[in-house]
Design brief:
This protein is α+β, with helices and mostly antiparallel strands and 439 residues long. The protein has helices spanning 2-26, 121-128, 184-189, 311-316, 336-341; strands at residues 148-151, 177-180, 192-194, 199-205, 228-233, 238-245, 257-258, 263-266, 278-284, 287-288, 323-330, 348-349, 355-365, 370-376, 382-387, 395-405, 414-424, 427-438. The protein starts with a helix and ends with a strand.
Length: 439
Amino acid sequence: MLRWGLVAVTAVLLVITVLMFVDRFSDDPPTASPMIAASQDAPATATDTPASGNAEPETAAPAVTREQSAPATAPLPTAPAPTEPYSPPESSTLTVAQFVERPAAPMPVVLGQPPESQPKLELARQTAQSAPFSLTSPVACDLGRNCFIQQYMDVDPGPAAQDFMCGHLSYQGHSGTDFRPPNLKAMRDGVPVIAARGGVVRALRDGMADVNVKTLPEGAVDGRECGNAVVLTHEDGWETQYCHLQKGSVSVRKGQIVQAGDQLGLIGMSGKAQFPHVHLSVRKDGQKVDPFRGLDPQVACGGDYRPLWDAASGQQVAYQPGGILDLGMVDRQLTPDQAASGEFSPSQLDRNGQALVAWYYVFGIRQGDVMSISITGPDGNRVFSQTLNPHPKDQAQYFAFGGRRTPPDGFQPGTYRAEVQMIRNGALHDRRGVSVTLH
């Protein structure tokens, strides 16, 4: 009996202890801290600070004896401008020449969107790093037909100038590649400049006039040699810069994300330019890179390179060592500036005009090149034929014309065809023709 009594007392004490334990912890207040809503501020924007000196001055093309102009090219379609994200105010004194010295642009912010839907630029950079860096052609035109690469980056370390193929399509200190239309009319019709690779707009400028720098007072574009321009930053320290854009054509905003092929502006002649073109510069970690040679080329020129162009653009940007830019037929003599305007290549002429003249512009003409010109009438007979002496020197551009005066009874009505040939080292290098109807 005593044993059962001890068991009962023990059980009662155990129950009381458990009840006391439960009661103690059930009365404690919650200890978690209250939640406080944190503000979602946009990332801070780096202040634009002017850099000292001109990091990207572009030297003007060598002076030319004459120039050239071409039949009008049809206007190219204009891509719609992308949605414009927030763009912080830009210093009015900032020049494109100073862009190289500035820090990389911060992550752009799209107003009105929650943080989770903001552009994931860093993720895009990490993904892109798994593939080689490549570029597309920066112009929406047909290279070799209605636009041309006139000058390449100077790869000669000394006072001379050479392009990547050991040719002469460059000049001392030229830091990029020049893509041009044949004449000013083609420029005014509009040749889109497009992003050669997806990236972020780091800096831009617009508002400079499209004029030949030779017509301006000396020093008029100092500090603004690049003219109207756009600078894009890409992954892993790469940048591309697009100079000499047409006034009022820049179609992007600072901080905007663009894709390869998006329109940035139109080819122009702003800044230190003597002909309409876009100057493309490529940089890696601030160092200039020739896109035709790629990174760490083993030789200065004529080597086996790993160019930056992608497979599709590699064919488009094939090296053309000079050629015929433009030609036309008119009924009078004309000046180089008139030809370069693109307004002097009509399809019809009066058979009783002053004369029948064929004119042409060439780029990259070499010492020893031979130019010939001929005009054939509707009956198949030659109206005019001329072969010039071997050219005396290398020139960036050259203009010439030839023809005959109108006979007393006028030219025979019908279609006349002019043909221009460029002969190099005894072989046909380039040939183009144009026709006009006399009535």
